[in-house]
């Protein structure tokens, strides 16, 4: 009986952690989308979702250097 309860508790904690991590990632992506929209006035959620982690990290560095949206997008896409 105790064993089953411990397994259920462990499974519940694992599920909570997965939900937390997923929410954290979604929040970061939403923040990038909002940042791009504030800077360039363009909201492209699908494009941001298609980026890899390295490209997402580069957004913060490149967004304030590049004035033109198309050039910004090209610079991000060229990062592999």
Element layout with pairings:
Elements (H helix, E strand, L loop, with lengths): L1 H39 L4 H5 L3 H10 L6 H9 L3
Helix pairs in contact: 3-4
Description:
The protein has helices spanning 2-40, 45-49, 53-62, 69-77. It is mainly α and 80 residues long. The protein has one domain (2-77).
Please summarize what this structure is.
The protein is an all-alpha fold and 80 residues long.
Give the amount of beta strand, in percent: under 5%
Compute the CA-based radius of gyration: 19 Å
The number of domains: 1
Largest sheet, strands/sense/barrel: none
**Helix run count:** 4
- Described by the principal axes of the CA atoms, the overall outline is elongated
**What is the average of the pLDDT values?**
89
Number of strands: 0
Determine the fraction of residues in helical runs and give it as a percent range.
Answer: over 70%
Sequence stretches where pLDDT stays below 50 over 5 or more residues = none
Given helix and strand content, the structural type is mainly alpha
Distance between the termini: 52 Å
* Order of helix and strand elements from N to C terminus: HHHH
List keywords for this structure.
single chain, 80 residues, mainly alpha, 4 helices, 79% helix
């Amino acid at each position: 009986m105790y064993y089953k309860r411990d397994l259920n508790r462990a499974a519940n904690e694992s599920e909570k952690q997965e939900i937390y991590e997923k929410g954290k990632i979604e929040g970061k992506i939403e923040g990038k989308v909002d940042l791009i929209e504030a800077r360039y006035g363009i909201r492209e959620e699908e494009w941001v979702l298609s980026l890899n982690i390295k490209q997402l990290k580069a957004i913060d560095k490149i967004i304030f250097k590049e004035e033109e949206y198309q050039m910004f997008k090209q610079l991000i896409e060229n990062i592999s």
